[in-house]
Amino acid sequence: MREYVKKMSGGGQGPPRVKFSEILWSWLGAFLGIAPVALMNYTLFPDQDFVYIIGSFGASAVLIYGAVRSPLAQPRNLLGGHILSAVVGVLSFKLFLFSPWFASAFAVATAIGVMHATRTLHPPGGATALIAVIGSEKIHNLGFLYAVIPVGAGALIMLVVALAVNNLAESRRYPEFWM
After folding, report:
1. Does 40 map to a domain?
2. Neighbour count for residue 12 (Cβ, 10 Å)
3. Domain range for residue 111?
4. Residue 165 and residue 23: Cα distance in Å, rounded?
5. Highest-confidence range of 7-21, 45-59, 86-100, by mean pLDDT?
6. How many CA atoms lie within 13 A of 66 on its CB side?
7. How far is CA 136 from the centre of its chain?
8. Is residue 7 part of a domain?
9. What is the Cα–Cα distance from 118 to 106, expressed in whole angstroms?
10. Does 178 reside within a domain?
């Protein structure tokens, strides 16, 4: 028991400081990446019953604009993690509609398993799966289209921005790998 508790004490150093220029590039990327998705959601298609922006895109922005070298931020992981998790989330909602707590837990756990198995682990994918279960009626009405709009389209827009912005800085290179 003592060793188990000792593992929780950490032991390593804190994270390194980030250069101010990196902070600015991360800010610019996140702003330019979220802006077109939010713009579509709030102004371009206000009369549509679609949702174009979901909360997990905020977490993706942290990875693809703030941690560009992370394996979890690469295009394969961004797109695959979100889309596969969306499908898992919708399926969980449909199968376990009678038990929202179970559908929520099943969606996130299964999404993690699927992302591991397909080498597309992207932590915001867990939230994407959960949103499919706990989301609004608009989300539920989309059914499996949720994996295409907003999830696939939004992630693709953010990827295009990440490719453009992250490669403007001499100190950055994105992606580290595609497949």
Report:
1. yes
2. 5
3. 21-166
4. 13
5. 86-100
6. 12
7. 18
8. no
9. 18
10. no
Residue 101 above 90 pLDDT?
Answer: yes
Q: For the residues 94-98, what does the mean pLDDT come to?
A: 97
Q: What is the mean pLDDT of residues 46-66?
A: 90
For residues 87-105, give the mean pLDDT.
98
Task: Name the amino acid, one letter, at 59.
Answer: A
Task: Write down the residue that tokens 């499908």 correspond to.
Answer: 87
Q: Per the structure, how many domains does the chain have?
A: 1
Tokens of 150: 């907003």
Two tokens, residue 63:
């990875």
Which two three-digit tokens encode residue 131?
A: 């949103």
Residue with tokens 């929202």: 100
Distant-in-sequence contacts of 70-76, Cβ < 8 A, 24+ apart: 71/121, 71/176, 72/121, 72/122, 72/123, 73/122, 73/174, 74/175, 74/176, 74/177, 74/178, 75/159, 75/175, 75/178, 76/119, 76/120, 76/177, 76/178, 76/179
Answer whether residue 13 is part of any domain: no
pLDDT at 83: 98
